[in-house]
Amino acid sequence: MRGFLIEEYGAPTSHRIHDLPDLSPGVNEVLIENHAIGLNFPDALMVQGKYQKRPNPPFGPGRDCAGVVKAVGEGVTDFKPGDPVVAQVFTGAFSEQVIAPLSRVFHRPEAVSAIDAAGAITVFNTAYVAVSIRAGVKKGDRVVVTGAAGGVGLAAVQLAHALGAEVLGVVSSEEKAKLVREGGGDALIVTEREEEPLKQIFKDKVRTHWGDDTGADVVIDTVGGAMFIAGLRCLGFAGRLVVVGFASGSIESAKANYLLYNNLSVMGAPLDIHFDHALEEMRAGTEWWLGLLAEGKVKANVSEVLPFGQLMQGLQDILDRKVAGKLAVDVTTG
C-alpha cells in the first residue's frame, strides 16, 4: 500500500509517499480501506514535531479517515468487511490502509460520502463535546461562537442551531458571516483584536444582541487571547464559557473574582480524552451528527478536495492561512 511516513520531523512539504507493507488488524481493531482523509491544523503541527503529543519517528501521520471495512480483528462483532465507516485515530490515517481501534470507528450512513465524513469528524466531534457535553446547550439558549466560520466554529453554530439555540457567530468578514447565516446563526462582524475595544464591543453589541441586557447563556470560544476575555463580558447569570482552542496563538487567564461576582463558569472541551472517559457519549454524539449530515440538516463544509499526492501541500496551505472551509483528500486519486 501507499502512505506517508514521517522519518524525521520537518515542514509538511518535506514528507513524501512511501510504499509500505499491507496491514492486518489485531484484537479489537478494524482495518479500513481508506477512501478519504480530512486535514486539520493539528496534523500540520504534528508532522513538524510541534504538536503537544510527539510520536517518535518513523510513524504514519494523520487522524481522520473514511472508507470501508477491509477486515476485522478478534473480538470485533459490530463491524464486518464492506461496512462504510469513518474513523478518528491518533496516527496512521494518511495511508491507503488504516488500522483503527474499535473505540475510534463509527458506522457511516450510506447517504454520507467518505469525503464529507472524513472532513467532518474532528470538527463535529469537537463541537459536540463543547456544545452538548460541556455546555449542555438546550432549546432557547443564547449561544455565542467566536471564530464562527472556522471548522470547529461553524460546526458548533450548526449543532447549537440543531438543538434549538439562538446562535450568534462572531466573524471577521462578510464572506465569513454568510457561512454562519447559512449554518443557522446570526452573524456579527468584528475586526478589532485589541482587548479593551473588544471587551466594549462584546458588552455593547454581543451581550445586547437579543434586545435586552440579559446576556448570553453560553460562549464557545475557539480563538482565545483577547477574544476569551471579551467573551466573558457578554455572559449573563450562570453563563458558561467553553474553551475549545487558541487560534489567536495567545492563552489568557480569567480573574477568579470576576467569575465569582458574576456567577460564571469557564471549562475546557478537550476531544481525545472523551474517548477514554465518555466513550458511550461520544458514540451517541457521533451517530447524532452523522444522522444530521445524512438528512442534510448540517453541512460538512468541505471547500476543496485534493488528490492524495497533494496532501502535504494542503497542510502547508493550512499553515499559511490560505484555506477557507475544510480540506479533504481523495485517497483514490493522485
TrEMBL record:
Documented EC number(s): 1.6.5.5
EC class name: oxidoreductase
Enoyl reductase (ER) domain sequence ranges: 10-329
Cross-referenced SMART domains: PKS_ER
Alphabetized SUPFAM superfamilies for the sequence: GroES-like, NAD(P)-binding Rossmann-fold domains
Keyword Oxidoreductase: yes
Keywords, in A-Z order: Oxidoreductase
Pfam families, A to Z: ADH_N, ADH_zinc_N
Gene3D superfamilies: Medium-chain alcohol dehydrogenases, catalytic domain, NAD(P)-binding Rossmann-like Domain
GO molecular function, one term: quinone reductase (NADPH) activity
InterPro entries in alphabetical order: ADH-like_C, ADH-like_N, ER, GroES-like_sf, NAD(P)-bd_dom_sf, Zn-ADH-like_protein
Protein name: Quinone oxidoreductase 1
Gene transcribed to yield this protein: qorA_5
